[in-house]
C-alpha cells in the first residue's frame, strides 16, 4: 500500500502537465484514488463518476478546462481579459464622478478609446494558462459587441457639477474642423435709371444682381468645459460678387432717363431722354464674417438639442452706371449717372436647434441639423450719386447727392443642413455638407424709380429691410485630438 501511494505522488507533477496535452488518453493507474487494497476487478472510484471528472483541472477527464466567464455589471464576457478591462474602466469613471473630476473622467474615456485598458489587461494575464483558454472567433466578436455596448451605456459625467464639488475650470479640446465651400446668396435688389413703356409705369432701367455667388472658408472647434455643457465655437468668412449689364433699346416706344435720389439744385427730379435708348451696368460685391457658438444640452441618444448665439457682420456694395449719348439738331446730348452705395449690417442673434448624428458601418457617419432663432439688426447706408449732363440748367449739369441713413429691426432666421462624414483614420475625417439658411431681416437700399416719387411725394434714397436666403455646399476636414477607434461608438 505505501509503495502504491508513493508511486502515485511521484507521478503527480507529470500528470499535471499531461492534463493539457493528452486529449484522448485515460488516466494512468497511478492517479486512481485507492483507500484500501485494490479490488481484483481493477476498478477505481473514478469509474463511478459520470461523466468522468479530472480531479486536477476540474474539467472533463483528459480535456482542457473551459474558458472562464466574467460578468461586469450585467455584461458577460467570455474572455476574462475583456471583463478585467471593462471593470477597471467603470471603476475609474465612478471614482471621477464621485468627486466630480471631469479631467479624470475624460482621461478614463481617452484610455478606453485608445484601448489602453485592454492592452494592460493582456499584459497582466498573459500566461501559459491563458493561451489554453483562447476563445473562438464568435465569442471574441460577442465580447467586442459587449465592450461597445458597455461604452455606449457608460455612466455619464454630470454637467454641470454641483457647486460644492466642482473642480477648478478646465477646458479640453475635443476636435477641430476646417471647411471650404460655395454658396449662392439671394439679396434684395435695387437699380438705376428708369424705363417707361408708352402708357405704362416706370421701373428701373436695370436692376442689380439678385443672386451673389460666394466663396466660403470656416473653422470650428469643440470643447469640453468643466462645470458647463460641451461647446462648439466657429468662425466663417465669405466673399463674392455679381453683376448685370443691359440696354434700353432705342426706337421701341420705351422712354428712358435717370431719376435723382433727391431734388436737384434746380428743383428737378431727373432727366428724360425719350425713346433714344441707354446703356446700363451694375456691379455688386458682398463679404461677411459670421461668429457663432453652440452649447449642447445633456441629453443622451442620437438627437442632441443645443442653444446657440451668433454675430454676423456683412457689407454689400452696389456700383451702378447709366449712360446715354445721342445726336439731335447737330448737337450731341449726353447724360450720365453713377451710384456708389454701401450697406453695413450687424446682427446679434440666438436660438435653439437639434443635431442628429448616426453611424453607418465602421467609417461612415451622417449628420442633420435644424435650428431657428431671432436676431436684432443694425444697418447703415452710405450713398453717393454723381449726375452729369451737357444740357439743362447749369446747376444740374454736374452735381453730387450724398446721404447717410441708419435703421434697425428684429427678424427671424432658420437653418437646415445635411452632411456625411468618412473616417479616414482614428483622428482624421473627411466630410461633405449642404445647407440652406434664411434671414428675414437684412438691410436694403431704396432708390426712387419714378420722378413723381421724388417731385410730388418727396421721397429720397433710403434704408429699408428685406430677406436674404443662402444655400450651398462645402467640404470639411475634421481632426480629433483624442484618438477614437473606428470601431468605437
Compile the SSE list and pairings.
Elements: H1 2-10, H2 12-18, E1 70-72, E2 75-77, H3 80-98, H4 102-113, H5 116-124, H6 128-132, H7 137-152, E3 171-186, E4 191-192, E5 194-197, E6 206-207, E7 211-225, E8 231-248, E9 254-259, E10 270-274, E11 278-296, E12 303-328, E13 331-360, E14 364-389, E15 398-423, E16 428-446, H8 451-455, E17 462-480
Helix pairs in contact: 3-4, 3-5
Largest sheet: 10 strands, antiparallel, barrel
Proportion in helices: 10-25%
Query: Radius of gyration, rounded?
Result: 40 Å
Coarse shape: elongated
Structural class: alpha+beta
Q: What is the element string, with H for helices and E for strands?
A: HHEEHHHHHEEEEEEEEEEEEEEHE
In which order are the strands of the major sheet placed? 3-7-8-11-12-13-14-15-16-17
Percentage of β-strand residues: over 45%
Amino acid at each position: 500500500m505505501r509503495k502504491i501511494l508513493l508511486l502515485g505522488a511521484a507521478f503527480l507533477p507529470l500528470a499535471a502537465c499531461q492534463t493539457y496535452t493528452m486529449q484522448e488518453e485515460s488516466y494512468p493507474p497511478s492517479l486512481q484514488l485507492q483507500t484500501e487494497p485494490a479490488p481484483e476487478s481493477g476498478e477505481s472510484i473514478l469509474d463511478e463518476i459520470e461523466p468522468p471528472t479530472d480531479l486536477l483541472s476540474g474539467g472533463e477527464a483528459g480535456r482542457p478546462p473551459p474558458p472562464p466567464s466574467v460578468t461586469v455589471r450585467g455584461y458577460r464576457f467570455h474572455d476574462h481579459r475583456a471583463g478585467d478591462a471593462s471593470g477597471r474602466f467603470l471603476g475609474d469613471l465612478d471614482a471621477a464622478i464621485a468627486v466630480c473630476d471631469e479631467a479624470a473622467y475624460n482621461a478614463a474615456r481617452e484610455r478606453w478609446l485608445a484601448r489602453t485598458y485592454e492592452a494592460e489587461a493582456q499584459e497582466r494575464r498573459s500566461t501559459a494558462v491563458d493561451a489554453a483558454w483562447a476563445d473562438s472567433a464568435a465569442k471574441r466578436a460577442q465580447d467586442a459587441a459587449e465592450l461597445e455596448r458597455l461604452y455606449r451605456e457608460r455612466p455619464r459625467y454630470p454637467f454641470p457639477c454641483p457647486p460644492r464639488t466642482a473642480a477648478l475650470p478646465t477646458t479640453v479640446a475635443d476636435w477641430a474642423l476646417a471647411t471650404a465651400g460655395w454658396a449662392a446668396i439671394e439679396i434684395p435688389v435695387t437699380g438705376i435709371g428708369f424705363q417707361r413703356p408708352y402708357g405704362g409705369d416706370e421701373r428701373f432701367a436695370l436692376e442689380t444682381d439678385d443672386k451673389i455667388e460666394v466663396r466660403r472658408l470656416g473653422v470650428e472647434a469643440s470643447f469640453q468645459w468643466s462645470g458647463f455643457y460641451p461647446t462648439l465655437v466657429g468662425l466663417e468668412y465669405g466673399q463674392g460678387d455679381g453683376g448685370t449689364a443691359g440696354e434700353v433699346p432705342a426706337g421701341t416706344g420705351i422712354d428712358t432717363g435717370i431719376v435723382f435720389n433727391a431734388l436737384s439744385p434746380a428743383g428737378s427730379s431727373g432727366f428724360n431722354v425719350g425713346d433714344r435708348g441707354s446703356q446700363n451696368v451694375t456691379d455688386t460685391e458682398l463679404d461677411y464674417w459670421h461668429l457663432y457658438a453652440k452649447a449642447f444640452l445633456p441629453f443622451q441618444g442620437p438627437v442632441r438639442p443645443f442653444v446657440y448665439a451668433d454675430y454676423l457682420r456683412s457689407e454689400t456694395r452696389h456700383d451702378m452706371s447709366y449712360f446715354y449719348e445721342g445726336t439731335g439738331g447737330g448737337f450731341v446730348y449726353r447724360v450720365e449717372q453713377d451710384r456708389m452705395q454701401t450697406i453695413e449690417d450687424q446682427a446679434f442673434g440666438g436660438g435653439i436647434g437639434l443635431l442628429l448624428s448616426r453611424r453607418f458601418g465602421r467609417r461612415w457617419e451622417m449628420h442633420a441639423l435644424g435650428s431657428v432663432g431671432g436676431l436684432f439688426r443694425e444697418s447703415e447706408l452710405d450713398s453717393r450719386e454723381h449726375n452729369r449732363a451737357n444740357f439743362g440748367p447749369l446747376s444740374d449739369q454736374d452735381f453730387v447727392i450724398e446721404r447717410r441713413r441708419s435703421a434697425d429691426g428684429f427678424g427671424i432666421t432658420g437653418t437646415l443642413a445635411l452632411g456625411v462624414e468618412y473616417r479616414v483614420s482614428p483622428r482624421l475625417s473627411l466630410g461633405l455638407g449642404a445647407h440652406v439658411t434664411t434671414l428675414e431681416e437684412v438691410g436694403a437700399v431704396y432708390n426712387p424709380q419714378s420722378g413723381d416719387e421724388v417731385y410730388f411725394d418727396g421721397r429720397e434714397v433710403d434704408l429699408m429691410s428685406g430677406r436674404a436666403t443662402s444655400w450651398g455646399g462645402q467640404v470639411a476636414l475634421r481632426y480629433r485630438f483624442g484618438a477614437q477607434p473606428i470601431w468605437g461608438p
